[in-house]
Amino acid sequence: MKLIEKYVLRQLVANSILLFLLIISIFSLSKSVQLIDLSLNRGLPFIYFFKLICLTLPAIIPVILPIIFALSILFTYSRMRNDSELIIFESSGASQFTLTKPVLLYGLFLTLTSLSFTTLISPNSNQTFKALLYSIKNDYSASLLEEGRFNTIGSDYTIFVRKRLSDGKLNNIFIHDTRNAEKPSTLIAKKGSLIKFDDSTKILLENGTQHFYSNIDKKLSVLYFEKYLLNIIENSNNGFSHNWKSPSERTFQELKYPDLSNGDDRNNLQAFNAEIFQRFTLPLNVICFGFMIVVFMLSQKFFRVENMYVNLKVIIIIVIQMGLFILCSNIAIKNNGWELVNFVPSIINFTFAIRILNQNRKYV
User: Fold this and answer.
1) What angle do CA 87, 319, 71 make, to 5 degrees?
2) For the chain, first and last CA: distance in Å?
3) Tens digit of pLDDT for each residue in 143-197?
4) Residue 356 pLDDT
5) Which residue of 166, 177, 249, 311 could cross-link 126, Cys pair, CB 3.0 to 4.6 Å?
6) Does a structural domain hold residue 242?
7) CA dihedral 72, 74, 79, 82 (to 10 degrees)
8) Could you tell me if 271 and 342 lie in one domain?
9) What does the buried/exposed string (b/e) look like for 260-276 if buried means 16 or more CB atoms within 10 Å of the residue's CB?
10) Do the beta carbons of residue 168 and residue 194 sit within 8 Å?
């Protein structure tokens, strides 16, 4: 590799790392806002705060890599043009291929990195993230009961607590139980306490009443009790195994051979096919987007002062690229047999890049 190519490559790597850290930090900060309240004010173990954020990153990295790569090219080549470095390189005999080669090499590396995320890392992290959310919702939802609000536990219980003490004691409790749709019940107790076991969470109610209303007989019955043990969560891990997997959580084997006896799988066959193609087109966008940006940057005329109009055009091109990718992705998901439309953004960028290169050769 020539000295010029090494220099440009170092600039690209440095800019992309800074952009990556900046975007990931902003994304993590936005995700952490709602989790901080759970950790600090509602008793959720702080380790879950880091786990949830880390598990969301693999899914977002392949999406932001084309943007990061395109912006790093813009910053690198714009600075070199403003500092007259590109003029010096071209005057010393460096061809456009020499100035483009670092982008292609680094783009190939980022493409392979993105491919490893879309095919292996992201599906596993998405599934683990969903399992962790399910665990928090079931295993910790009782301990996260917020006083003064109606809290929904699963699909069967609505719980209102007037006051919740730090030792787990509860005062003035209202629980609506809809496990039996024909005969829902409501429990009202003066006090209670949370009891957590390995596979379940129970609430021990004291000095209260249980109200039954039969939708069949249209009668209300009242039961008085001194102590009542209610099991509100049980076997959460077993329940998760029956949850339906979204396309982003599935392996290639699960996407290619879905369970046709499952109604949700049958209704999402096109989404599965589109997901398979998107796991390859998303990494391909990295090198194709970057190729288009660098060729466009090198085709621009030199100005003695910084030309913001050129930078603005590059930004617009990046926005159009991502908008086209999102549009094609939605079309592929919603229309049967349109999976190949995911390749359109890459093909368009590569075609325009080759066309600009040919035009530049005519003027040389």
Assistant:
1) 40
2) 24
3) 556 677 787 776 678 888 888 776 667 888 888 888 777 778 888 988 888 777 6
4) 85
5) 249
6) no
7) 180
8) yes
9) eeeeebeebebbbbbbb
10) yes
